[in-house]
Amino acid sequence: MAFDFSAAHLHLLLNHFPTIGFIIAVGLFVIAVAAKSDHLKVGSLVTMVGIALITIPVFATGGGAQAQICGPLDVPGPCENTAISRTLIEMHEGAAFLSMYFMFLSGGLAWLGLWQYRRFKRIPTWNTVLVLALAFVTLATVTQAANLGGEISHPEIRITQESTEPPLGRVVGTFIATTTWTFAATETLHMIGLTLIIGVVLLIDLKVLGFLPGVPYATLDRLLPWAILGFGLNAMTGMLFFVAAPHQYVGNPSFNWKLIFLMAAGLNMLLFTFDQTWIREGQTTPAYSKALAVTALVLWVGVMFFGSMLPFLGQAF
Amino acid sequence: MSENLTLALFVTAAVTVGIVVVALVGVLIDRIFTGQERAGGL
Predict the structure, then answer these.
(1) Which of B14, B18, B33 sits opposite A225 (nearest CB)?
(2) A120/B26 CB distance under 8 A
(3) Could you give the CA distance from residue A265 to residue B20 in angstroms, rounded to a whole number?
(4) List of chain B residues whose C-beta atoms are within 8 Å of the C-beta of residue A182
(5) ipTM reported for the complex surpasses 0.90
(6) pTM of this prediction?
(7) What is the mean pLDDT of each run of 10 residues along chain A (317 residues)?
(8) Is B19 touching A (CB cutoff 8 A)?
(9) How far apart are CA A26 and CA A44, in angstroms?
(10) Residue environment code for A153-188, b if the CB has 16+ CB neighbours within 10 A, otherwise e
(11) Whole-angstrom Cα distance, residue A63 to residue A317?
(12) Is the dihedral of CA A119, A122, A125, A128 positive or negative?
């Protein structure tokens, strides 16, 4: 039997993380609040951020899965396989699109909570309440997306009536794709998000590597929420490009590599957020923290390189 | 020409609004999340 691992396989593998993974993360957070355990809170917040990061490839591989079971993404009309409903796929895409943005908000808030914990040694009650409230709303939207996704290939559990209204993903995607100014403006904001990330990450990494001795750690650490804001902004604007022209990204090797580097860079940034060792003023920075700093620079260069190469190596646009 | 001008104006307006929103959110996050610092938490 030949080994065949496609975008559909990857989507089926990854799509359980935003549902089951997030349920576990929220469950752990509730237990942590009840048990008044800050360590468990940190663990569940890390899980929430990780799940929010994974949501990006989950959504992107959904496009590949659609191309495989329905046909080319840029060709309108019913699926080549008449047993598959394109309307249902697009309803699933719309629900997933909404849940992905809620996931970005939840992940961003969880990330800021981790930063707060490292800086102040505690997470304030108001942030705990806010994380919980947003997490439950996110969970509701993710569950809806997962339910619609399951119905695509499982007619035996299908209860959803196909809507005649265009779903959210297609409404937003068509708007971005057909109005030139939105695409240009979103591209500019994507660059602003990038400068926020690179500006802060570069300064912190240079400090960790022994440069910038005159700048205190606490001053640079205070900039980290700006990098988190830049990451959130770019996740949001980046996925707007994807829904506007999914056929340009699906199967594009530059996009695949950009996602791989992005996931690794996000993980690196996450490790940095709760790494307690590099922040101690006057002490020798451990090799582990220095390795994190060097890999961060390499990974972000990789993200930028493959982002820039989308039209050249991947022949998009 | 006028079409290009309209496009430039729309993009400039949208980017300006975008930058203002990002800056406001950033300042808000800094204010809220470092509140403990000003209260002597650090």
Answers:
(1) B33
(2) no
(3) 27
(4) 14
(5) no
(6) 0.90
(7) 72 92 95 92 94 95 89 82 87 95 95 88 87 95 92 80 84 91 91 95 90 85 91 95 92 92 93 74 81 94 93 74
(8) yes
(9) 7
(10) beeeeeebeeeeeebbbbebbeebbeeebbbbbbeb
(11) 17
(12) positive
Question: Got the DSSP string for A232-273?
Answer: HHHHHHHHHHHHH-HHHHTT-HHHHHHHHHHHHHHHHHHHHH
Contact between A156 and A81 (Cβ < 8 Å)? no
List C-alpha distances in Å: B28 to A8, A225, B24. Answer: 41, 11, 6
Distance CA A226, CA A221 (A): 10
Using a CB-CB distance cutoff of 8 angstroms, which residues of chain A are in contact with residue B33? 112, 115-116, 225
Residue given tokens 């989308």 in the structure block: A310
What are residue A178's phi and psi, to 5 degrees?
A: -100, -10
Read off the tokens for B6. 């309209």
